[in-house]
Design brief:
The structure is a homodimer of 517-residue chains.
Chain A: H1 16-26, E1 31-35, E2 38-41, H2 42-58, E3 66-70, H3 75-87, E4 90-93, H4 100-110, E5 114-117, H5 123-130, E6 138-141, H6 152-158, E7 173-179, E8 187-192, H7 193-206, E9 214-217, H8 224-236, E10 239-242, H9 248-258, E11 262-264, H10 267-276, E12 300-301, H11 307-310, E13 314-317, E14 322-326, E15 336-337, E16 342-346, E17 359-364, H12 376-382, E18 383-384, E19 387-396, E20 402-407, E21 412-414, E22 417-419, H13 421-429, E23 434-444, E24 448-457, H14 465-475, E25 484-487, H15 501-508
Helix pairs in contact in A: 1-2, 1-3, 2-3, 2-6, 4-5, 7-8, 9-10
C-alpha cells in the first residue's frame, strides 16, 4: 500500500553532517569556532570537515568504524565528530586525565581504526598506552607543526574537498562516551544522530541559546553535558570557543575578547577566576552579572533568565542523552521528561507500577542510546520489552513529576521488602545529633540483608545506637529502621563530594545487594 | 558489527501515541482539552484515546488505513488523531465548507475505512456526499446524542480500554492534509509522527508555548498552521480549547473563562470580536493587550515577546511541515530553516546553484512529508536525488537567509532565460503611475513566451505603454523588460487578497509556462 510513497524514503535521512551543510548555506560567514589562533566561519568549517571526511576515508574508515580522540579540548574534536557524521564513523573523546594503563584498556575495548592524539601535556602517556598497539591503525597527531606532513593540519591541506556524502539514517551511532557502568568496568554508551540533535534542541530552549550566543567550551569534551552545550550552540548557529584546559587568565581573556554568553566552567576554576579578576580587570559582563566569581557554584553558565537557570536540575544519565528529565518542564520533583522521551516506573520485570510506588526508572524513545559498544550481554540485559533499564530507582509524585530515589545498586533487600538508603538517611539527617550518615545493607542468612547505619555524630554528642533506631522507628515503616548502628569519625567521599558507598561497604561489611548479581 | 546493538532497536520507536501516554504519566491531572461541556485531563484523554483506538480496531482499522473527519472543529479531532497514532491509521480533517461533490471526490480519493461525520450544520452535505458510498466502511456520527448507540460517545463508552499498543516507527504517516496541488486537483500530503513532533517543538519555541499556555483552536483543523499550534500546546502539556466555528461572543467568553494565552483567529473574526467587545465587557487580557481588537491583523495570537511575534513570517508549505523556514531564526530575507530541515536552491535537475542565483527550492530532512496519498507519479516527479521539489522558486541572500521568489508555475521562459514576474512587478511598482500590476507570460512561437505586463494606472495618469517598458529597461536586464503592456481597470484577487494569476492568464492570454507540462 505504501509503495506509492517509496520515493520519499530517501528524503527523510538527516544527520549532524547535513546540519553542517545547512549552516554553511544558511549562515556562511558567521563564526562557528574559535580556538587560539584559529577562527573559522561555518562555510570554512564545512569545507574543512569535507576534507577531513575524505581523509578519514583514505585512512580506511568505513561505516561503523571507531575513532578515538586522545587529547584535550580542541575545535578539532567538533570537526572529527562532524567528519564522522558524514562517513558513518563513531567518535569517542577519551578522558585525557586517564592513566596510560586506562588508555590502553580503552584502545583494546574500543578498537579504533583512527586515533587522533596530542603531544602537548599528554604525549608521554599516549605514547606509553600506544605501545605496539598500532598495527593497521592510523595515529594522527592533531597538534603537530604544520610543516610536519603527518600531522592533522598538513594532512587536511592535502586532502580533496568532497562535498557529496551519502546521507545517513538518523539512527546511526555517532558518539561514544565511556561511563562508569554498574558492574565496575567502564563501558561506552553509543548515542546516535537523532539523540544528539534532539538533546541539542532542548539545550537551546533550556539554556536560551541563539545564533548570537558564544559558548565557552572549558569543561571536558568527554562529558555529555559539555558536548551537548557545544552541539546546542552549533545547532543554533552560534560560536563555540574552545580552550585546551582551564587556565583562569585564558578563560577571562576569552570571555572578554569574544563576548561569550554561555559556558561550562568547573566550579574550582570559576573560583580561581574570581580571585584573578578581583579587581575587575577583565570585562566578563557578557556572561557574569558581576566580576566577583569566587562564590560561583554552577558549572553551567547562561543568562539568568534561561529556564535551566531559573529551574535548575533534573534527572539523567549519559545513556538517555544526559540530563533529559528537566525541572524547568515543571512539577515539584526532579521534573518531567523532555519530548521524545518516555519514562515509566517498573518492577524488575518491567511491569509498570502505580503512581507513587518506588521502582526502577525505565526509558524509551529516540533520546536513548543505541546500546554499549562491545557489550552484547549487558545490552540484552538492559532492554526489557522495548524499554531501557536505567539501573536507577525513582517514583512519580502525585503531580506526575519524577523523583529520583537513588541508584538501584544501593537498594537493600530485607526479606521481600525493598529499602532505599536515601530514605533512611534523610530521616536520620533530621536527628540533631547526626553530622553525616551512610546507610548500607549487610548480608544476613535469614533476611538477605540487614539495614546498617554508619553515623558521624556532631561534636559533643554521645547519643547511643538505640536512640537513632528509635528515631527511625517513630518515623518510618518498622522494617526500614536500622538494625545495626555504628559510629565513625568521617565518611569517605569521592571527588564530586558524594559519599563513596563502595568504600563504606568495603569498610563496614556491606554486600549482598539484590541488583548486583 | 552492530548485532550487539540489536536489542536497542525497539527502544527508539516513538510516536504521538507514546507522547500521550507520557503526558498522562507526567501531568495526569492537568487539563488537556476543553470543548463546550467537555473538560478532560491528560489521564482522562489517555483513557478515552485507548478506548477509541480499541474501537477503531473493532471497526477493522489496520496499519495504513485511512480515517476521514467530516465535521467542524472538535476536541474529538485530536482524539481521533491520537487514536490513529496508536493504531497506525492516517487521519484527514476535511474542509467542512466543501461542497457535497468535493466531499464525494475526497471519499473516492482518500478511500477511508472509517468516517467520523457531523450532523450539526453540515449533516445535509455529508449525507449527500455519502450517497451509497458506504459499502464496507464505518460511518460514525461524532455529535450524536449519547443515548444513540451508534454515536461516538456511546461507542466509546462500550469499548474496552486497551493500553498496550505496539510502538510505531516515527516515520509512519499519520496526518493527511489536502493542498491545492500545482496540477489543479487537490492532493493529500501525508505527514509522519516525526515531522509533526518536530514542528510542534519549533512551535513551542516560536510561539512561547509552555505547560501554562491555553490555545484557542478556532481556525480550521484542516489548516496545517492550526493543527501545529494545537500539537505544540499538547506537546508542552498545555490546554487546547476547541470551538466548532467562529462565533465572536463564544470566543470572547472562552478566552475570559479559560484565561487563554494563544490562538489562531481568522482576521475577520478578530474584527467582529472587536466590535462586540467595544465596551470591554469581556476580559481578554490573558491574550490581548487591549480589548479593542478591531485592527487586529494576524490570525496567530501569542505573547508579544514570542519570537514568531517579534519576527513574523518565513517560508513554508504543507509538504514541508508548514512554516518551517523562519524569520525568527535570523537573516534579512524570509529566514533560515528550522533544525532538521535542509534547503538547497537547485536547477531543474536538482544541481545546487551558487549563492545569489534564483532556482527551485528543494528540501530534505525529517520535516518533509512522506509523499502525496495515491499519487505515485507525482511522488516520483517530486523527489530528485533524495530531495523534495517544492515547485517554488527562491534564492539565498548574501547572509545565507532564504528569499522566496514565487511559485515556479509563474516563471516565464524567454528563449533560454528564466524570468520571475515578481521581480518585474517590483520594478514596475516603483513607477509612480502604477497602482497595481501583474506580469504574465504569453506564448510565442519563437521565444517560448513573451513578458506581458497588465497595469492598473493611478487615477489621472495617462503614461503610455512605452514609458513603462523604458522604465524597466533602465533598471533590469533587457531580456526581462515587458514586450507588451496593456492597461486594466482592476486586477482579479483571491480571498487572501493576492492577485489571482490564473484569472489574469485567462483574461489576458497567459500560458506556455515551462513548469506546466
Amino acid at each position: 500500500m505504501f509503495a506509492a510513497l517509496a520515493p520519499y524514503k530517501a528524503v527523510h535521512r538527516y544527520g549532524l553532517g547535513d546540519l553542517l551543510h545547512e549552516q554553511a548555506r544558511s549562515r556562511p560567514d558567521d563564526i562557528a569556532v574559535v580556538d587560539g589562533k584559529h577562527r573559522f566561519t561555518y562555510a570554512q568549517l564545512d569545507e574543512r570537515v569535507n576534507r577531513l571526511a575524505a581523509m578519514l576515508r583514505e585512512h580506511g574508515l568505513r561505516k561503523g568504524d571507531r575513532i578515538l580522540w586522545l587529547g584535550q579540548n580542541s575545535f578539532r574534536v567538533l570537526e572529527v565528530l562532524l567528519a564522522a557524521a558524514r562517513t558513518g564513523g563513531i567518535v569517542c573523546p577519551a578522558n585525557w586525565r586517564a592513566s596510560a594503563a586506562e588508555v590502553a584498556r580503552t584502545l583494546e575495548d574500543f578498537d579504533p581504526k583512527v586515533v587522533f592524539w596530542q603531544e602537548a601535556e599528554v604525549g608521554e602517556q599516549n605514547r606509553k598506552a600506544r605501545g605496539d598497539w598500532q598495527h593497521g591503525r592510523s595515529w594522527i597527531q592533531h597538534d603537530g607543526e604544520e610543516h610536519d606532513e603527518h600531522c592533522y593540519e598538513s594532512l587536511l591541506a592535502k586532502s580533496p574537498s568532497l562535498d557529496e556524502f551519502e546521507p545517513l539514517e538518523p539512527a546511526t551511532p555517532l558518539l561514544a562516551i565511556y561511563t562508569a557502568a554498574f558492574t565496575g568496568a567502564p563501558a561506552a554508551a553509543l548515542l546516535n544522530h537523532e539523540s544528539l540533535l534532539l538533546t541539542a534542541m532542548m539545550g537551546i530552549q533550556g539554556q536560551s541559546i541563539t545564533e548570537k550566543s558564544g559558548y565557552l567550551v572549558s569543561g571536558p569534551m568527554f562529558h555529555v553535558g559539555v558536548l551537548m552545550g557545544t552541539l546546542a550552540t552549533f545547532l543554533a548557529g552560534g560560536r563555540c570557543a574552545f580552550v585546551a584546559r582551564v587556565d583562569p587568565v585564558e578563560l577571562l581573556q576569552m570571555i572578554q575578547d569574544e563576548h561569550l554568553t554561555h559556558a561550562f566552567i568547573p566550579q574550582p576554576t570559576a573560583q580561581q577566576m574570581g580571585v584573578v579578576n578581583a579587581d575587575g580587570h577583565y570585562d566578563v559582563s557578557s556572561i557574569f552579572a558581576k566580576s566577583d566569581l569566587s562564590d560561583w557554584r554552577s558549572p553551567l553558565v547562561m543568562p539568568p533568565t534561561a529556564p535551566l537557570m531559573t529551574h535548575p536540575g533534573g534527572y539523567g544519565q549519559t545513556e538517555i542523552g544526559g540530563l533529559s528529565v528537566l525541572a524547568w518542564l515543571g512539577g515539584v520533583a526532579a521534573g518531567r521528561p523532555s519530548p521524545f522521551l518516555q519514562i515509566k516506573i517498573g518492577d524488575d520485570a518491567g511491569n509498570e507500577l502505580p503512581r507513587g510506588a518506588v521502582g526502577e526508572i525505565f526509558a524509551r524513545g529516540p533520546l536513548v542510546m543505541c546500546g554499549y559498544w562491545n557489550r552484547p550481554e549487558e545490552n540484552a540485559r538492559r532492554v526489557v520489552n522495548g524499554w531501557h533499564r536505567t539501573n536507577d530507582l525513582g517514583k512519580r509524585l502525585p503531580d506526575g513529576s519524577l523523583a529520583f530515589v537513588g541508584p538501584k545498586t544501593t537498594m537493600i533487600k530485607s526479606a521481600l521488602e525493598n529499602i532505599y538508603p536515601v530514605e533512611i538517611e534523610t530521616c536520620l539527617r533530621e536527628h540533631e545529633a547526626v553530622a553525616d550518615v551512610c546507610v548500607i545493607g549487610v548480608p544476613d542468612p535469614v533476611w538477605s540483608q540487614n539495614v546498617k547505619a554508619v553515623i558521624v555524630r556532631r561534636p559533643g554528642r554521645t547519643d547511643a545506637e538505640a536512640d537513632f533506631i528509635e528515631h527511625c522507628r517513630q518515623r518510618l515503616a518498622s522494617y526500614k529502621k536500622p538494625k545495626i548502628v555504628v559510629f565513625a569519625e568521617s565518611l569517605p567521599r569521592n571527588g564530586a563530594g558524594q559519599i563513596d558507598r563502595a568504600a563504606v561497604d568495603a569498610a563496614y561489611g556491606g554486600g549482598g545487594y539484590p541488583s548486583v548479581g
